[in-house]
Amino acid sequence: MAPVNPPSNSPSTAFSPDTRFLVTGGAGFIGSNLVDHLIESGYATRVLDNFSTGKEENLTHHHQNPLFELVRGDLRSPDDCARACQGIDYVLHQGALGSVPRSVSDPRTTNDVNVGGTLNIFLAARDAKVRRVVYASSSSVYGDEPNLPKVEHRLGKVLSPYALTKLTDEIYGELFYSLYGLQTVGLRYFNVFGKRQDPHSVYAAVIPIFVKSLMSGNAPSIFGDGGQTRDFTYINNVIEANLLSALAPETACGRAYNISFGENTSLLVLYDKLCTLLNRHVSPVFAPDRPGDIRHSLADISLAREHLGYNPKFSIDDGLARTIEWYVKHLG
Ligand SMILES: NC(=O)c1ccc[n+]([C@@H]2O[C@H](COP(=O)([O-])OP(=O)(O)OC[C@H]3O[C@@H](n4cnc5c(N)ncnc54)[C@H](O)[C@@H]3O)[C@@H](O)[C@H]2O)c1
């Protein structure tokens, strides 16, 4: 097994060369970006995915690479999770059913995958003596907590089955560390964006929706007055957070951390930036507020700075410029 090194400025070079990673949900948006980075850094990387929302095309460029291994399987299957965890040093658990509206219309499947699947991964990682599991949580766990910025210990009442599944995962993460000594680190992602984020899904996120509409010359809808804000986080910051979490001292384990850029941007400002980058100027259509939408979201990232050495390098402007370049090439 690889020795753990302290966080460095360049976390991807700090693992020993024979380190083996498992990325669950590796065919999805965040997972496939992690896989690219790990393989480019020279690490053996296995993916567990059932391709329910992830795409084959996100991984085909690795198929001939001896560092890459694909386990087609389901998080809901204990056997698939056990097979996937065998011989692994670090699990980066991204597989889940995302989207609040999906969880409202089908809470059972969201629960089976996000809670049952995470429990299967924790059990399999424990039994396979995996060094550490870093898992994706979500800013949705803050629920109706009104104060800004969001700090990890101050939670409100959850507002969706999706948020409940992520909160349950965090409690399991804490419990598995205290009960079985399985090292777990949870990452509460805030509105991640970047290449490969799916614009076609009915549950697409706001940036891909805006980009797709603008590129096809259509006016996107903005729910409410557009003054609502989000802490948009470029994917490369999330990749760095995962690697730092794997390397952080053990004192970082058994809890969850906010992962964002730490700045909030309104939807109107975001829309303006996208119009400028794409050189399209279409007025958006304003639609009624969506019930349950929170007005503002902003993370305090000082806990992640302190315990993980997290220091996001990519601002929203840097990230948007890179993301648009990718969409123009791939959607244009
Ligand atoms: N994108 C964001 O802004 C954001 C914000 C907060 C949290 N998250 C969390 O980050 C993680 C990754 O999100 P994403 O945006 O890349 O989503 P995604 O839908 O692109 O990726 C999820 C992946 O998990 C796979 N998967 C789903 N169910 C599975 C199952 N039963 N068995 C095996 N694989 C399964 C999918 O096929 C897909 O490849 C998720 O846990 C999500 O809840 C994302």
Numbering strands along the chain, what is their spatial order in the largest sheet?
3-2-1-4-5-6-11
| CATH fold-level topology of the domain at 16-190 and 235-261 and 299-313 | Rossmann fold
Cα gyration radius (Å): 19 Å
Number of DSSP helices?
Answer: 10
The poorly predicted ranges are 1-9
**From the 3D coordinates, which CATH architecture of the domain at 16-190 and 235-261 and 299-313 would you assign?**
3-Layer(aba) Sandwich
Quote the beta fraction.
Answer: 15-25%
Describe what this molecule looks like in 3D:
This protein is α/β, with parallel strands linked by helices and 332 residues long. Strand 5 (132-138), helix 5 and strand 6 (184-189) form a beta-alpha-beta unit. The strands form four sheets. It has a seven-stranded parallel sheet, with helices on both faces. It has a domain at 16-190 and 235-261 and 299-313: 3-Layer(aba) Sandwich (Rossmann fold). The protein is globular, with a radius of gyration of 19 Å. Helix content is 38%, strand content 16%. The protein has ten helices and 13 strands. The site of nicotinamide-adenine-dinucleotide (NAD) has 29 residues, from helix 1, strand 2, helix 4 and strand 5.
Topology:
Blueprint: E1 20-24, H1 29-40, E2 44-49, E3 68-72, H2 78-85, E4 90-93, H3 100-105, H4 107-127, E5 132-138, H5 161-180, E6 184-189, E7 192-193, H6 206-215, E8 221-223, E9 229-230, E10 233-234, H7 235-247, E11 255-259, E12 265-266, H8 267-278, E13 285-287, H9 302-308, H10 316-331
Parallel strand pairs: 1-2, 1-4, 2-3, 4-5, 5-6, 6-11, 7-10, 8-13
Antiparallel strand pairs: 9-12
Helix pairs in contact: 1-7, 2-4, 4-5, 6-8, 8-10
